[in-house]
Each structure stands twice: as C-alpha cells, then as structure tokens.
Write a structure and sequence with these properties.
- By secondary structure, this protein is an alpha+beta fold.
- About 30% of the residues lie in helices and about 30% in strands.
- It is built from 10 helices and 13 strands.
- A hairpin with a 4-residue loop joins strand 12 and strand 13.
- Helix 1 runs antiparallel to helix 2 and helix 2 packs across helix 3.
- The N and C termini lie far apart (about 75 Å).
- The relative contact order is 0.14.
- The mean pLDDT is about 95.
C-alpha cells in the first residue's frame, strides 16, 4: 500500500487483543489500590503501598513532584502530603479503561479528588474549604501490583481554586471536567474486540492528520489541511488543563487551543520515545507520552509568555470517548507547570515568593492572624 493510499498510516497501527476477564480484573485491582491509598487511614498507607506497588515501582508525577523511584519516595513526596492536605479526601473515578500496549497491561483512570483543603500543598495556600482536584493516570500492572505510574494532577487548577493565578487567563473556560455524557466511563464489562480496535484506530487517524501541519501560520487553509473535521463530532467537548481551559466544537477548539498552540510551537512533533500508553476499550481510548511531544517555543503569547526560543518536552495524556465514527469527548491533562518551567517561568517559585515572604508560617495562618 502506497503512502498516498494509506494517508493515515493505518498499516502501522497496532492493537493488542486482551483477555476480557483479565482486563476487567486488572481494572478492578487498580481501582482498589488507588482508592485505598486515597481514602484509608494514614497509618495504613505504608502497608497499602507495599501491597499495591511493586518494590521497584517508578512514579512519574506532574511538576513539581516529577520522577520518583520506589515506594518510600512515592509515600513521602506524593501520597502523604496529598492526604495531609485533604484529610477527608475521597476519590471519584469517572473513567477507567484498560488494555495491552507493548506487551504490558495498562490501566488508565481519570476523575477528581474531593475534600477539604486544610493544609498547604506544595506551597499552595490551604483554603479550608472544599476543592475539586482533577487527576489522570496511566498504570502498568504486573502480577497484581503497579510497576509504573504516570500521574497527572492539575496543581495549577488547585492554585486557581485557592485564588492564585500566576499566568494569563485561560482562553477556554475554566470549569470542572464532566464525566462522559454516557455515564459509562468505568468500563467493567466485556467489550467487543472489533469495537475497541476501531476506537483506537479512530484516534490514531486523527493523530496522523495532525501531522499534516505544514508549520505555516495557521490560516483557515492551513488548518483545513489537517482534516480535523473528519474525525470529530460537530459538538465535541475538549476538556483542557488549567491554563488552557475547556472548549466545544471545532471552532472553539481551534480558537482557544489549537491556533495559539500552533503559533507558539510551529515545529511540534513526536519523538522516537513514543507513547507509554495506547489502548482502546470499547468506545473509550487512551494515549499518553512523557516527553514524547517536543517543540521549540518560537512564537505567540501562549500562557501570556512571549517567545523564548527554548526547546521543550511535553507531558501529555488524552482520554477519549467515541461514537461509531467520530471522537465525541476528549479529556486532556497536560503538565502546564512543567512547560512553563522550560519557558523560564517557575509558577511554584512565584507562589512561594508571594505567600512566604512574611515568614515561616503558612499563608492560611498569616491570613487568619492578620497582616501585621
């Protein structure tokens, strides 16, 4: 088949069949592990972590936590600070899908942590009110334990909920991400293999079409070369991270995300590293890369930052729901603070400077005590 005949590179797509019973058991196991770490009493966390994680597990978490090696590091730098900050935290999964990629079992989860923000987290001042903290995850499961995790937590959105916005306002709408409209995102029943294969192929065709971008200013003609209208439902929902926001339909997507992104990163493209996850599960699919997407920041005012000329690596996941032919919903965690850091903007440093310069007490303690 020639490249012209195979314009979406479908001959390169790979779908790994799964044992449905095992896939469901894997999803149930990950739900069990993550819910226990999220909601069990703090003194039980070390034992639960040993039960849920492989001894040599690696945890890759959005900035400023970043790459962690081993159970102890995961507890000390992620789970214990998070749980102490939201002591009544509950985990609400909206999307759990599974599959095989590169001879490994992968489970992807998306949802929100709900709880009272009682203690500062990563320097973000506690509000002592309810917050809704979005998470998106990809977990490799081996022999009933998590061997590798990629965990996207929207800390920038937590800053926003605490009343601190360190960058230009999002072009899209800042809002809580909705669950799938069909309310069936926890895929815990057997799925038709042909349907799962078609869903991930729908996604990969869209990805291939994004590669048609010429690098020229994104005029209507240039955008049309990427043929995105063929792959998306006319009223699709695109849920972006804080700093970008949520959009609806192709026009909203183009105006509030795609065009600003292309202007800022006209040479964006994938690396040889590729995705760490690429699965289809019924009408749902998940892809993700950790440094997979690379670009040079040469234009525009994305996030309110002028061009820096710096090369960047991006941490991104995509959670999709499709209908029979098109993509209907897309939830997109992006490690925006990590992108900004590579642009020379340390949002956590800015926050610490603003809220900590009066002394060692927390921002919430200072606010309660008064400003003298």
């Amino acid at each position: 088949m020639s490249q012209t005949e195979d314009k979406y590179f479908t001959s390169s797509f790979q779908y790994s069949p799964v044992d449905q019973a095992q896939n469901i058991a894997n999803k149930v196991r990950v739900i069990e592990i993550m819910r226990a770490l999220s909601e069990a009493p703090l003194d039980e966390l070390p034992a639960l972590a040993r039960d849920g994680y492989d001894r040599d597990a690696s945890l890759n978490v959005t900035h400023p936590i970043n790459e962690l090696a081993g159970i102890a590091a995961g507890l000390e730098q992620l789970w214990l600070p998070l749980r102490r900050s939201l002591p009544d935290m509950e985990r609400r999964d909206h999307f759990v899908a599974g599959g095989r990629y590169r001879d490994a079992n992968w489970i992807a989860c998306m949802g929100h942590y709900m709880g009272s923000f009682e203690r500062d987290l990563l320097g973000i001042p506690a509000t002592r009110g309810v917050v809704c903290l979005r998470y998106c995850e990809g977990h490799e499961l081996r022999d009933g334990k998590i061997a590798t995790s990629y965990i996207f937590i929207d800390f920038l959105d937590l800053m926003r909920q605490a009343g601190y916005v360190p960058i230009a306002p999002s072009l899209g709408s800042e809002m809580r991400w909705m669950p799938p409209r069909t309310l069936d995102g926890l895929v815990l029943t057997p799925q038709d293999e042909a349907r799962s294969k078609q869903t991930i192929e729908t996604i990969l065709k869209m990805h291939a079409a994004l590669g048609y971008y010429s690098g020229e200013p994104p005029t209507r003609e240039v955008l049309d070369e990427m043929e995105q209208a063929k792959h998306w439902h006319k009223n699709f929902m695109w849920y972006g991270p804080s700093g970008i926001g949520t959009t609806r339909g192709l026009k909203g997507f183009e105006d509030y995300h795609q065009i600003p992104f292309l202007v800022a990163f006209p040479d964006r493209g994938g690396s040889e590293q590729g995705h760490f996850i690429r699965i289809g599960d019924g009408y749902f699919a998940v892809t993700g890369g950790w440094g997979y997407l690379r670009a040079t920041h040469t234009g525009g005012e994305l996030f309110g930052v002028p061009p820096t000329g710096r090369p960047l690596k991006m941490r991104v996941m995509d959670f999709y729901r499709c209908d029979d032919e098109t993509i209907v919903e897309n939830w997109v965690p992006i490690d925006v603070p990590h992108i900004l850091l590579q642009m020379g903007i340390d949002v956590f440093g800015r926050m610490r400077h603003q809220f900590r310069q009066r002394g060692a007490i927390s921002a919430s303690e200072w606010l309660v005590a008064g400003n003298d």
